Amino acid sequence: MSLLSVIVPSYNEEAAIPIFYDAMQKVGKDFADRFPEVEFEYVFVDDGSSDRTIDVIKDLRAGDARVHYISLSRNFGKEAAIYAGFSKAAGDYVVCMDADLQDPPELLPEMYDAVTAEGYDSAATRRVTRKGEPKIRSLLARCFYRLMNRISDVEFVDGARDYRIMTRKMVNAILELGENNRFTKGIYGWVGFKTKWIEYENVERVAGETKWSFFGLMGYSLEAILGFSTAPLSFVIALGFIVTAFAFLLIIFVVIRTLLFGDPTNGWPSMICIVVFFAGTQLMCTGIVGAYLGKTYLETKNRPIFIAREEE
Ligand code: UDP
Ligand code: MG
What we know:
Elements: E1 2-10, H1 16-34, E2 38-46, H2 53-63, E3 67-72, H3 78-88, E4 93-96, H4 108-116, E5 122-127, H5 135-151, E6 160-167, H6 168-176, H7 184-191, E7 195-200, H8 214-228, H9 231-261, H10 268-300, E8 308-311
Helix pairs in contact: 5-8
The chain binds uridine-5'-diphosphate (UDP) and magnesium ion.
């Protein structure tokens, strides 16, 4: 027998969870035919929902002992919820799925096949289209992936989802990364392992609403950059060198001009431009360094990634 743990981070998903569970039951039947050795386990992570999500999960558990849950003491965010799910999952294989059916359960048999018969450690999914999503969001996402691949050693796959099946070995590796600043897609990439990519067309969520606001996504991108690249710090150093070299040339120019032509005391506008320009660059650079320092500060506190209120 082999146990497959399905992790479902859920934040205010009272409407979506029953639909998700029904869809999974159907897939479970396909599984039973194709892979009779597989047993399922569900780990719902209630990420501090303010609606009836936890009651809905408990109802499911009353009728199905394979349903487990862990309810967090507040909203810790999807990344922390996934970690909570991983730490609770007992499966030989673990898959992480959104509650809103945007991660098509029909792909699951193919994914399972990849990590068992085909010898991969993980099978990951990526959306090749972003239909149903605001144009500007797709554009920014594309720019973000291009940037990340340039400035980070870890591979970032455009359209990659958190929907991924993994062997126990890979899950244990992920659990060892105990950082608080968790950008799961980057963490998946960082731990490595042989991954098969499965592509599919974007699906819109079945019920409820997306939890992402524009600024939420901006913050998420910033987390990724701070968590997986120190390129901005190198940028600060490079900028420092360039500006210093420029200042040096400027000094030579001013000294020679004064020696040749005396000091005609004008040049106030250019002086102001220079002062403002340098004040700006310095603030920006201090800010970049500060962003890393802030992250370091939070990490050194070594706080737990999540706190469970109840679990079963
Ligand atoms: N989610 C979560 N905690 C949060 C935000 C989201 O556990 O703070 C869950 C949410 O319930 C869903 C998944 O993460 O199962 C993806 O969220 P959503 O559908 O809002 O994101 P999108 O698909 O729009 O990227
Ligand atoms: Mg979604």
